[in-house]
Amino acid sequence: MVILNLGCGSRTSAQCINIDWSVYLRIKKSKIASLLAPLVLYSSPLRLERLRALDDRIIAHNFLKGIPFGDASVDAVYHSHLLEHLDRSDAVRFVREVHRVLKPKSIHRIVVPNFEDLCRRYLNHLERCIGDGTEHGKHDNYIADIISQMVRREAFGTSQQRPFRRWIENILIGDARRRGETHQWMYDRVNLGHLLECAGFSKIKLLDYSTSAIPKWNLIGLDRNQHGGEYIQGSIYVEAIR
Questions:
Q1: Residues of the domain holding 85
Q2: What is the pTM (predicted TM-score) of this model?
Q3: Distance (Å, rounded) from C-alpha 174 to C-alpha 16?
Q4: pLDDT tens across 91-111, in order?
Q5: What's the domain count of the chain?
Q6: In a domain, 37, yes or no
Q7: Could you tell me the CATH number of the domain that includes residue 231?
Q8: How far is CA 54 from CA 14, 63, 88, in A?
């Protein structure tokens, strides 16, 4: 069974074909960049370890150029917290590409931040603030949960470095948007379902992290943490049939 794990980052599975386009992966796949990386990242052991820990079997590919598989050649496609990083027009093309590579009656599983849940939490806290002045100082956290990754200019890891290193990294690697860190859109059960319908998918279902039509999904474990719970809380899980 051919399962694609798109935008995998460092979270891979031996049961899947893992594909990503992160800065770290591109550095590792480049002979010159991989030689220079220890010099650039020498003062950041955690980031250097993250680079070295990337699975060599991950395929480096830019999804804006399509999905590198033939028509109706794949049994399932999975991606988690990838779609929101694409511009809306690119997201439409990407979902159509998923439809193209899937075999008939095959499964498309999507995990994205749950915009509906974030908004409900914001509104609930707004009501608490109206009745309790001690909550005011916490309120920006609820706004940040919704928009911080939309408005961020500098990559988070770079922002934690010393001034000179921050300057160098921003020049060499680029800002948060160039690195694909920023959210370009947000999804809920309505607009995600509509996007899938427009791309030709049917039988769209809202599920949870442990439920899937993909055989032995919980053994593959991409939506589970090391303790068996939900890997990324606050997500929405949707599956559709090609």
A1: 3-21+61-114+188-241
A2: 0.86
A3: 30
A4: 999 999 999 999 999 999 999
A5: 1
A6: no
A7: 3.40.50.150
A8: 13, 19, 29
